[in-house]
Every structure is written in C-alpha cells, then in structure tokens.
Amino acid sequence: MEAVVRVLESEGVDTVFGIPGAAILPLYSALRTSPIRHITVRHEEGGTHAADGWARVTGNVGVCIGTSGPAGTNMITGLYTALADSIPIICITGQAERAKLHQESFQAVDIVEIAKPVCKWAVQLKEPAQAPWVFREAFRIARSGRPGPVLIDLPVDVQRGDCFYAPELDGPLAVEVPDPRLEPVRAAVDMLLRAERPIILAGGGVIVADAAEELRSLAEYLQVPVQVTLMGKGAFPEDHPLFAGMAGLQTQTRWGNAAFLESDLVLAVGARFGDRHTGDLATYRRGRKFIHVDIEPTQIGKVFEPEIGIVGHARPTLAAMLGQAHALTRARGAGEWTARVGELRSTLRRRDDFDETPIKPPRVFREINEVFERDTTFVTAIGLYQIWSGQFQETFLPRRYLVCGQAGPLGWEIPAAMGVKCAYPERKVVAVVGDYSFQFLMEEIAVAAQYNIPFVIVMINNEYLGLIRQAEIPYGMNFAVDLHYGEGGIDHVKVMDAFGCPARRVERPEEIAAALRWADEESERVRLPVLVEVMVEREANAAMGPSLDAIKEFEPVPELAPLAD
C-alpha cells in the first residue's frame, strides 16, 4: 500500500475522500505519512460525488476510498454519474481476505461484478506485486478516450503484502490523444464553408478536452455561431457576439431553439445528442445536416447517423479544422446569419425581472448573475432548479458550471461543491440546490464545517416536488401514490444552525441580492458553508415540451385530487 500511495502522489492526487473501515486500514496506514489530504465524508456516495467535483474542476482523476461491503455498493451511484458524464475517478474498496470470499464472510460482496456496468474498468487486486501496475493502468484507463470511472477492489491480505517498487523508475502511463484523419476534417470544413446557416454545437467533450480556445478560434475565423449543451456550458462565453444560446427540451433558451431550427448545418463536437437535448428526432434533424466529432468511435451514429463522422480528441480536431479553414478561405466577417442570431437573441429572451411575491424563480437567477463574478464556479444537480439554472444562468469560462447531466442523482451538489473547493480553495463556489435534493446528502454539510470548507448554497425552495408534479401535464403521467411533501417540512435554516453554519430565508424579491452578498462575505469570514434559502412560487413551472418547436409555458399545476378508494 505504500507503493500505491506513491503512485497516487505521482499521478497528481493531492486530496482523497473516503471513510475508513477494517478492510481498508492497511491503505489508510500508508496514507498517514503522505502529503495527500484525506477528507472523511459521512457517506460513501458523498465521497464519490466529492471526488467527481474535484475531477471536473481540475481535469485530473478524483479518488474516493471505502471499506468492504456496503461501502462499495454505496459508491455505485457515484460511479454511474461519472461514467454518464465522462468524468475520471477511481473508487478504491477494501475487501475480505481472498480465502474467505467464497464463504460469505462479513461484508464480502463481489463488488467488481456489481460495478462493471457503471465503470470503464473494475478489477480486484489478486497479488501484492500487481499493486503499482494495476493503479497505473487505472489512471491510464480513467483518462483515455472518453474518460470515466474505475473501481479497484483490495482484499485485506493483499494490502498487507510486500512488493518490490522503485518509485524513481516509475511514472504515469502514456495517454493517447488521437488526432483525426485529414480527409474527413477537410470534408467537414468544406461543408461548413458551403452552408448558409451553420452552427457549432459544443458539448461536454470540449470542456473535458480543454479545447475552448480552439473552439473560439475556429468560430471567430469562420464567423459561425456557437451553441452549447448543458454539459458544454462554459465552453464558449455567453456574452460573446457569436453565442447562439442553448437548444433543448428543458435546459434551453427560446432564441437558442429558434436559431437551431433555422440552421442548415450542425457541427457537433463532444456532444452525445442526449434525449433531453434533441427531443423528437424528426424535428431535431429536419432541414439540416450534421457533422459529429467525438473521441469515442461508438458514439458516432448511436442516436442518429450524421453526414460526416470524425473520430478524434476535440482539441487537435478543432485545431486541424482551423488549419484547413486557413488553407481554404480568408477570415470571414459577420454576415446575415450572425446578424439573424443576434436578432433572435434580442427579441426572444425570457423575462427575469419579476417583482411579485411569492418570488418567481427567474428573478433568483437574475440576481445570481448580477451578484457573482464571471469566474465563480457553480454546481447544480437535477430538478426544476437545474432547468431554471440552465435557462437563466450565465457562464463564461470552462469548468465553472458543473452539473450531473445524464445520471442526475439528487444530493450531488453539496459534496461536489466541497470537492471543487478542496481543489481550488481560492475560488468562489456556489451550489444551487433544491429543497428536496439538499436533503439527500445534507450530512456532508457537517464535513464541510468540520474541515472549514467555505462555499455558498442557494436553495430554490418551492416545498412542492415541482418537477415531479409538472411532469404529469406534458407527459400524461398519473400519480399512483399521494405525494405528501411540503406541509410541515424541514426548517433548513435550523438544520444549518445545527451544523454550526449560518443561514437566512428570503421571501421577497428585493431581499435576494443583499442575502447573496451577505452569504458570499460571511462564508469566507467564518470559513463555513452558508445557506440562502429563497422561497419561490409554489406552482412555478419550467418551460419544456416534447420537441424543440413545442416549447411553451405550461399552466400552473392544479392541486392533486385525493386518491379514490
């Protein structure tokens, strides 16, 4: 385990998240003499999400540690979340002795088989001599191609073993950065030049590849408007003249949907065409051609067949496209299409200046945009508050807007924000949460308080399970149980007080900005998480529909009738 710790250090890991237990103590013993900081979390799922947040903001591999049995099963949600969003993390689990694995020993579970469907690689260490090499390979696999999670299971007797290891002779394994073939790159640029209304769609792969500069250079040279997916938010500054909004069913802008529907060519880079982005594929594809760039070959054609598919890492692919553009044409000036996108942006924006009480959610995000600086890192999870966040929050820099996109586990945002702050203590971190999601892993507030990890929590509270209730209308769902939530619910200000952390409740729109500024200052002053709970209109819905051309504001959800006998 001393060799394992040396590998972790040399791979750039400075913080790990975990919970000790009997079956993992040899590894913890080796960590005692390491400069790696260990954050003891309250739940292994919280540990995986913290490692996830650390990985998203650094671009390096996050690490979570747990003991045997339920520690590993508690990590499964975090592994799935990382796999879905292409985030490199390594989960390390303790295990019973090898000779006891077939005897139903205490907390002996085949975690490797359980984890395989939600990992790039799941492996059990069989011999002490494998330790440094298995861990080197784990880091290589986590980083390679489409990044993702790895689980390593460590039987306790293997952990106690000895191995020969010379750290001065060892180092990280090479990670291939695949360059694209020139032929499809040339064809794609030629198609871009011939299109009348092209757009570039930047997905999360642009951020994972650190390719924002290459994206911007190509867009500016050819004057092609750029849209982002939810996972790609931050890949292109939203105040740039070429920013064309977001298209989608939920996290979208009206003018972004309109611009997408008027386009005739889409260059999608590092985007997987998720169903909450595309909606009805007939509407999404009608009247336009597609070029799909992805580092993972099997992603191309998975949802629909593009006219051109390009396999390659986003950064060298965009650089190669810019090189071809230089060879084929001079830098272009803004034309009719960019002017049209600007017109849509100025005429189809949603209101966010509501003064009514109860507070309308768009007003909260208006204040968030005005109070917090451009380089603030925002963390959010899943629910109506995430949809409003995607619709209204402005983002300008890569790795400053973190969201659990495809898996959408409730409770993700608090431990993820903690991981972000551990990675960059000097950065301002704001977690935008819902009241229900906050309660999933609110015990991790105690961890942030214990280690003096300060960040701001903005809670959008409608006390209503709003997204679940809204889903009944457009999707024809009917509740089979009584959703009894909200009446006599938790007092979140008192919850924060119990953790020793400051909190305020806001019920009027004119109070929001002052409360956010207070939380920002107070969090850094006391070095603790600080909560601003904003009570919003209970029946407020988010605009969403079954296809891009059917987005509308739904009527308030009616009160549910009691179930019949």
Rg is 24 Å
Report the end-to-end length measured between terminal Cα atoms. 61 Å
CATH class of the largest domain: Alpha Beta
Q: Approximately how much helix is present in the residues?
A: 25-40%
What's the number of extended β-strand segments? Answer: 17
SS summary, helix count: 24
Largest sheet: 6 strands, parallel
Question: Could you say how many structural domains there are in total?
Answer: 3
Flag low-confidence runs: 472-477, 552-565
- Strand line-up of the largest beta sheet: 2-1-3-4-6-5
Structure class = alpha/beta
What is the CATH architecture assignment of the largest domain? 3-Layer(aba) Sandwich
CATH topology (fold) name of the largest domain: Rossmann fold
Q: What overall form do the CA principal axes indicate? A: globular
Mean pLDDT: 90
Name the CATH homologous superfamily of the largest domain. Thiamin diphosphate (ThDP)-binding fold, Pyr/PP domains
What percent strand?
5-15%
How would you describe what is shown here?
- It is an enzyme of class 4 (lyase).
- This is Glyoxylate carboligase.
- Keywords: Lyase, Thiamine pyrophosphate.
- It comes from Actinomadura alba.
- Residues 2-113 form the Thiamine pyrophosphate enzyme N-terminal TPP-binding domain.
- With 565 residues, the protein is an alpha/beta fold.
- The chain has three domains: 2-169, 3-Layer(aba) Sandwich (Rossmann fold), CATH 3.40.50; 182-347, Rossmann fold, CATH 3.40.50.1220; 361-550, Thiamin diphosphate (ThDP)-binding fold, Pyr/PP domains (Rossmann fold, 3-Layer(aba) Sandwich).
- 37% of the residues lie in helices and 15% in strands.
- It has 24 helices and 17 strands.
- The strands form three sheets. It has a six-stranded parallel sheet, with helices on both faces. The protein has a six-stranded parallel sheet with strand order 13-12-14-15-17-16, with helices on both faces.
- Strand 12, helix 18 and strand 13 form a beta-alpha-beta unit.
- Helix 12 (254-262) runs antiparallel to helix 16 and helix 17 packs across helix 18.
- The protein starts with a helix and ends in a 30-residue tail after the last strand.
